[in-house]
Design goal:
Blueprint (H helix, E strand, L loop, with lengths): L5 H18 L14 H12 L3 E2 H8 L3 H13 L3 E5 L7 E5 L1 H22 L4 H18 L7 E3 L5 H17 L3 H17 L6 E7 L2 E10 L4 E9 L8 H15 L4 E7 L3 H9 L3 E10 L2 E11 L1
Parallel strand pairs: 7-8
Antiparallel strand pairs: 1-3, 2-3, 4-5, 5-6, 6-7, 8-10, 9-10
Length: about 300
């Protein structure tokens, strides 16, 4: 995908849109053999699942033209599906509510929609269904409002293997590093697991929407010095402050563990990481040119007192 032009990428998105609208039946004049269009059915859905909605709320939620929405609501009123009442919060606005008849009309439409999706999913295995849902979450995250909530936790079984995988993929994609780097990351993780001491070592996993999106390790370098290792934030979660939070947690743990100094190894090409370390008070103490991971590198050691 990285070699596609902007026009090629737009064409790919349009092709996906054509596929998905056909897949869910959105091209039909009436949705699910009902008397309603896709937009009308969506308005009924919002009214059935939220209380105290006004026309302004619906316009904002569905990005609809106010005149068009007004005509749809008038049609619903004529059919006895929707009733209006003055809003208790704003006397100038009308609150929209489904009538009993409206609820009765919506119920089979909602069930038909659910059954259509269940029918689509039943042809996929459980792993494929999870893969599909995760892909949809990622599309929603990238194109919708950015969700800034995440949690930091201890690693669970499988997390550290995932960290190795993600780091190898990330640095191969963004910097062209070869499998030597994956071997190094795997060795670091294996050493951490074998030598783990809760008094001196710690790992944090950053999780967002059930997905591992970041990690950092603190290990014993010597009696008074902690080493920060393998700071990583997935591209999908950047700009949320996760990297800074991981570094802050690492520093806090190191102080509580009795360390008086922290060091880290990084690479001159990792500009964003360097800015993060500088902001956290680290200073460059050593720089060495080398050839590793399939290319020329500038290895750097940074340190700070705790």
């Amino acid at each position: 995908m990285s070699t596609l032009s902007a026009v090629d990428r737009a064409s790919f998105v349009r092709a996906f849109n054509r596929f998905y609208t056909r897949q869910v039946g959105a091209l039909q004049e009436h949705l699910l053999d009902s008397e309603f269009s896709l937009t009308e059915a969506r308005i009924l859905y919002e009214l059935a699942n939220q209380e105290s909605l006004t026309s302004t709320d619906l316009c904002r939620a569905l990005d609809l033209n106010a005149g068009y929405l007004s005509r749809v609501i008038s049609g619903f009123e004529t059919k006895g599906l929707v009733e209006k009442s003055r809003s208790a919060l704003d006397a100038r606005a009308f609150q929209l509510t489904l009538t009993d008849q409206g609820k009765a009309v919506f119920a089979p439409l909602n069930e038909a929609s659910l059954n259509t999706v269940l029918g689509m999913l039943e042809h996929l295995t459980d792993p494929q269904q999870h893969q599909l849902i995760e892909a949809m979450r990622q599309i929603q995250s990238l194109l919708g409002e950015r969700e800034t909530s995440y949690l930091l936790r201890d690693p669970q079984p499988g997390d550290l293997g995932w960290v190795v995988h993600q780091q190898a993929v990330l640095y191969a994609r963004e910097y062209g590093w070869n499998s030597e780097f994956e071997a190094l990351v795997a060795e670091i993780v294996a050493t951490y697991i074998r030598n783990f001491n809760p008094a001196s070592d710690r790992c944090w996993i950053a999780e967002k929407d059930g997905k591992v999106v970041g990690s950092v390790f603190v290990v014993r370098h010597d009696e008074t010095t902690a080493k920060l290792r393998m700071l990583y934030v997935d591209a999908s979660a950047r700009g949320m402050g996760i990297g800074q939070r991981l570094v802050e947690e690492a520093l806090r743990f190191a102080r509580l563990a009795g360390y008086t100094r922290m060091v880290l190894w990084t690479n001159g090409a990792l500009l964003d990481a360097r800015k993060l370390y500088q902001k956290a008070g680290f200073e460059l103490v050593e720089e060495v040119s080398s050839h590793s991971f399939g290319m020329s590198q500038v290895e750097q050691t940074w340190a700070r007192d705790l």
